[in-house]
Specification:
This protein has a single domain, classed as Vaccinia Virus protein VP39 (Rossmann fold). The protein is 29% helix and 18% strand. The protein is built from nine helices and ten strands. Helix 7 links the parallel strand 7 and strand 8 (218-228).
C-alpha cells in the first residue's frame, strides 16, 4: 500500500514500485473480440467521447513533472460496460478548458451540498464505502486508471449511489483550472505513490505548491486528509502541511492523526499492517 492516485483509495503494497503501484495508473486496455481482455488505448476503446479519453488535456495545461506514470492494464467486460453506460452521465474529462459548477455536476444532491475531491482511488472499493456512508456528500474521484474507473462506476450503480462522479486525468489541472477557490469541503490523498528513490522525490504529489493549491480550493473548515505507509514520505507530508499558513493541524500535538472511522481499512492496508507497516494519517483544516 503506498502517490498518484492512489491516487487515490484502494491502498497498494509498500513494496510496489512507481511502475506497478495503483497510484501510477493510466490504464490503456480494452476487451479483445473473443471476449478476453486486451491492451488498447482508451481512445480506441471509447470512440467519439463515449468513455474516458486517453489524453483529455491534449497539449494544453501540461505540467513538466507529473506525480503519476500511466501504465497498461486490463479492462474487464463488466468494467467496459459500466464505462460505456455510465460515463456520459457520471464521468468528467479533466481537459482544463472549463470551470466545473459543482451543483450542476451533482444534480442529484440538493444545491450547496458538500463535495469532496479524492485524488487516486485505485479500484474504488474504499471510495464506494465512504460514499455509501455519507450519501449527502458528493464524491469527485479523480484517477487515470481505466479499470478502476469502470469498477467504481459499476459498484456505485449496484449500490444505488447517486453521489459519485469520476474524473479522468491530472488532478493538478482539475484543481488549478476547473475548480473554484473555496469550492470543496475536503480533499483526500490516500496512499499516493511514495516515489522512494531520491531522484524521484520531485514527483511526489504532496509538495508545497500542491498543498498551497489544495488549501485555496478548500472552503473554511475544509479538511485536507492524507494517508501513507511510507515513513519518510509521512514525515515530508507533515512538514509541508505544517508549513502551509492556510492550514492548521487537527491534532493538538502537531503530529499525526489516528485513522478516522470514515476512512475504511482496505484489505491491502490490512495486509501491510499484518507485515508491520505503520500507516500515518494527516488531517489539516483550512483556516477561516
Amino acid at each position: 500500500m503506498s502517490e498518484k492516485n492512489p491516487q487515490p483509495a484502494e491502498a497498494a503494497e509498500a513494496t510496489e514500485t512507481p511502475e506497478t503501484h495503483p497510484g501510477a495508473r493510466g490504464a490503456l486496455a480494452a476487451p479483445a473480440r473473443d471476449g478476453r481482455s486486451a491492451h488498447s488505448a482508451p481512445g480506441a476503446m471509447f470512440p467519439d467521447g463515449t468513455g474516458p479519453s486517453a489524453n483529455p488535456v491534449g497539449d494544453r495545461h501540461e505540467r513538466r513533472i507529473r506525480s503519476f506514470q500511466p501504465r497498461r492494464s486490463r479492462v474487464t467486460a463488466a468494467q467496459r460496460d459500466a464505462l460505456l453506460r455510465l460515463w456520459p452521465k457520471w464521468g468528467v474529462e479533466i481537459d482544463g478548458d472549463r470551470r466545473l459548477e459543482l451543483d450542476e455536476l451533482f444534480d442529484t444532491l440538493p444545491p450547496g451540498s458538500p463535495v469532496i475531491l479524492e485524488i487516486g482511488f485505485g479500484m474504488g472499493e474504499a471510495t464506494v464505502r465512504m460514499a455509501a456512508d455519507d450519501p449527502a456528500t458528493g464524491i469527485l474521484a479523480a484517477d487515470v486508471h481505466t479499470p478502476g474507473q469502470g469498477n467504481l462506476l459499476g459498484q456505485a450503480e449496484r449500490r444505488g449511489l447517486s453521489n459519485v462522479r469520476v474524473a479522468n486525468g491530472d488532478a493538478i489541472i482539475l484543481l488549478r483550472e476547473m475548480l473554484a477557490p473555496g469550492s470543496l469541503a475536503g480533499i483526500r490523498v490516500f496512499f499516493p505513490d511514495p516515489w522512494p528513490k531520491k531522484r524521484h522525490h520531485k514527483r511526489r504529489i504532496v509538495q508545497p505548491e500542491f498543498v498551497e493549491l489544495a488549501a485555496a480550493r478548500l472552503r473554511p473548515g475544509g479538511l485536507l486528509h492524507c494517508a501513507t505507509d511510507w515513513e519518510p514520505y509521512a514525515e515530508q507530508m507533515l512538514q509541508v502541511l505544517t508549513d502551509c499558513p492556510a492550514l492548521e493541524n487537527t491534532q493538538a500535538d502537531g503530529g499525526f492523526a489516528p485513522r478516522p472511522d470514515f476512512r475504511p481499512l482496505t484489505r491491502f492496508e490490512q495486509q501491510g499492517l499484518d507485515k508491520g507497516h505503520i500507516v500515518h494519517d494527516l488531517l489539516f483544516r483550512r483556516r477561516p
